[in-house]
Amino acid sequence: MTLSRRCFTRQLASALACCCTLGLGAGQAMAEQAEYPVQPIELLVPFAAGGTTDIIARAIAEPLSKALGQPVQVSNVDGEGGILGARQAARAAADGYRLSIATVSTTASNPAINPKAGYHPLTDFSPIINIAATPNLLSVHPSFPAKSYAEFVKAVQAKPDGYRYASSGTGGIGHLQMELLQSLSSLALQHAPYGGAGPALNSVVTGEVPILFDNLPSSLFSVTSGKLRPLAIAAPERIAALPQVPTFKELGLEPANRMAYYGIVGPKGLPAPIVQKIHAATAQVLQDPTVRKRIEDTGAQIVAASPEEFAAQIKAEFEVYEELVKQRNLTLQ
Fold first, then answer.
1. Does 165 reside within a domain?
2. Phi, psi values for residue 200, rounded to 5°
3. Which of 5, 61, 133, 228 allows an S-S link to 259, with CB 3.0 to 4.6 Å?
4. Do 249 and 264 lie in a common domain?
5. How confident is the model at residue 170 (pLDDT cuts 50, 70, 90)?
6. 157 and 226 housed in the same domain
7. Which helix H or strand E contains 70, and what residues bound it?
8. Is 16 a residue whose pLDDT tops 90?
């Protein structure tokens, strides 16, 4: 055999071996996806325990464990208004063993205002399912001189920059939704950011700050107990718990009629079979009356959207707040 033929033979053998190796690797990957999950799954909550995000995560964790055949363990990673936990979730291995609860704050408002978030909501996650959505509520301390949204606008316009509103922090949904409302109503308010929804709520209940834009689950008890006066709600229609409160759409402010969402995402590149398996298991869990009641008791509405629908919603919300940040020249400072 000539030298050239020997070289060709070795190259051919090497190529065939490589193809076999790649084939075995691909086959093994497909097998692993088909068997998924074979170990416990971490469901990361990018906020402190006790809030709406945490409640929803824990409502589905145990039944999801049964549906998937492996423990689903909730982990709280609080910090930077949800960005710290979302960043960790985005950097996880694309194997389905570290998932995260995604919210409007972590996938829309915060990354829209923070260029150093360390992830991009449209390219660094694999949307799996939107579990539920909650209305957002504009409320005031009972001493505030307004009993309706029209009176609220009149009072604020009579005293430009004279009133403060509390939020869970700069870049959070409460902050940017209030900025959106101001842009639609020609209002001028001062932002008072706090280190979480709890402290923000407390500041308004005690009268330290007179105005709050917050998730309904956080505010509902204070409203029903008379510690807050509700003025308008961001929801598709009026809700049974507060039938007297109009929606922003009714007030002619439909762009402000934006609900908060709570869904599951994985890191980018999560294989489609794994995405579908998690989606199907979660959708099944959301049919359980006990799970549904626990979630709905927070004021949330079950959604169970497809991965494609959830991806479209994340994109729409991010683009709204990205444009708002530009229009109002908002920064973290």
1. yes
2. -65, -45
3. 133
4. no
5. confident
6. yes
7. none
8. no
Contacts of residue 140, defined as CB under 8 A and 6 or more positions apart, other chains included, come to: 146, 152, 204, 210, 211, 212, 228, 229, 231
Q: Does the pLDDT at position 270 exceed 60?
A: yes
Answer whether the bond into residue 37 is a cis peptide, omega within 30°.
yes
Highest mean pLDDT of the ranges 12-16, 52-56, 270-274: 270-274
Residue 17 has a CB neighbour count (10 Å cut-off) of 10
Both 83 and 228 in one domain: the answer is no
Residues 125 and 268: beta-carbon distance below 8 Å? yes
Read off the tokens for 1.
């055999």
8 pLDDT tier (thresholds 50, 70, 90): very low
Strand order in the sheet with 98-103: 72-76, 41-45, 98-103, 260-267, 125-134, 301-305
Q: Quick one: which of 59, 40, 128 has its CA closest to 288?
A: 59
Instruction: Look at residues 53, 74, 280, 291 and name the one whose alpha carbon lies nearest to residue 172.
Output: 53
Percent of the chain scored above 90 by pLDDT? 72
Structure tokens at 306: 């497809």
Domain co-membership, 267 together with 129: yes
Helix (H, G, I), strand (E, B) or coil at 261: strand
Kindly give the interhelix angle for 52-68 and 216-224, rounded to the nearest 10 degrees: 120
Query: Using one digit for the tens of pLDDT, what is the confidence trace for 295-313?
Result: 988 888 999 999 999 999 9
Q: Are 103 and 127 in contact (CB under 8 A)?
A: no
151's tokens: 């009176």
Domain that holds residue 224: 135-256
| Amino acid (one-letter) located at 27 | G
Q: In this predicted structure, what is the pLDDT of residue 172?
A: 87
Q: Which CATH number fits the domain that encloses residue 232?
A: 3.40.190.10
Instruction: Give the number of domains in the chain.
Output: 2
pTM beyond 0.85: the answer is no
